[in-house]
Design a protein that fits this description.
Layout lengths: L1 H26 L27 E2 L2 E2 L3 E2 L5 E6 L14 E6 L5 E3 L15 E6 L5 E6 L13 E6 L4 E4 L8 E6 L5 E6 L13 E6 L5 E3 L14 E6 L5 E6 L18 E6 L4 E4 L1
Antiparallel strand pairs: 1-2, 3-4, 4-5, 5-6, 7-8, 8-9, 9-10, 11-12, 12-13, 13-14, 15-16, 16-17, 17-18
Length: about 280
């Protein structure tokens, strides 16, 4: 009996504290850009519920920060972050942590391009936070002729959305972007060059300005794909170097595989000099 009374007293004290916190929260408007957690308490003025942010395609989704930490790019199922977003989609947003402004990035070309339908994933952002890269199966561009995930690059200042992988008829993933947004590296099973039969996942680098695509996970003597799958890409700030993992054993001359059939190695390719290094 005494134990039940003690627990009841503790519960009443907790409710009283919650009531005090609620009153305090309701009385004090949140400054622009504030981020805070809440349960069943009233939210401060000027705040927006975040819903399921940071989680998409049934698994945790990575976020991305600009180099100076001002802009945060993330996926969210929230339907109150933008009136222009499809409320049933897993959208991509960019938040200005200085001003609190949230912008919809996953949308078709144009300043008021339609919001994406379906789900987005694999976000990345340029160094200044101005260009947002994401993957979606939604056809945001007429040149996207299939229902497989493709890469899109949104320039928020210009209001432009570019299809980075128009020639891919297989899923595109593991994407990275150079600091200035000029280059994008990605992984796909699609054979985007004559030397890639499309039997394994390979790494490519695309130049956004003209859509030129180069095979990264290639053998030394010719633009022919290696003899094993490659994945997990990253780009140097200037887009010149591409790092990736691979099970291929013919990417570097004289390489002797000691990892076995399911082992992998890390490589870096200098796209300007045309040399691949075993890391």
């Amino acid at each position: 009996m005494i134990g039940r009374l003690m627990r009841a007293g503790a519960a009443l004290a907790t409710l009283a504290a919650a009531g005090s916190l609620a009153a305090s929260a309701a009385a004090a408007p949140a400054p622009a850009g504030s981020t805070f957690g809440f349960g069943q308490l009233p939210m401060p003025a000027n705040s927006i519920a975040a819903a399921g942010s940071g989680y998409g395609l049934n698994e945790p989704a990575r976020s991305a920060l600009s180099d100076d930490g001002r802009y945060l790019v993330f996926v969210s199922t929230a339907n109150a972050l933008s009136r222009e977003a499809d409320p049933d989609a897993v959208n991509v947003f960019r938040k200005d942590l200085r001003t609190g402004r949230v912008a919809l990035a996953s949308r078709a070309d144009g300043p008021r391009g339609r919001g994406m339908r379906g789900a987005a994933d694999g976000v990345a952002v340029s160094a200044d936070g101005g260009r947002v890269l994401f993957s979606t199966a939604d056809r945001l561009d007429p040149a996207d002729a299939d229902d497989e995930p493709d890469l899109y690059l949104r320039d928020l200042a210009a209001g432009r959305t570019t299809l980075v992988t128009p020639g891919s008829d297989a899923p595109v993933h593991d994407a990275a972007i150079s600091a200035d947004g000029a280059y994008v590296a990605f992984v796909t099973r699609a054979g985007l060059v004559p030397g890639d039969a499309g039997t394994e996942s390979d790494v490519y680098r695309a130049r956004v300005a003209d859509g030129a695509v180069e095979l990264v996970s290639r053998i030394p003597a010719a633009p022919t794909a290696g003899n094993g799958e490659s994945w997990e890409v990253d780009l140097s700030g200037d887009g010149r170097w591409v790092a990736f993992s691979s099970r291929a054993t013919d990417l570097v001359a004289g390489f002797v595989d000691g990892n076995g059939a399911f082992g992998a190695d890390v490589y870096a390719r200098d796209m300007e000099a045309g040399d691949t290094y075993l890391i």
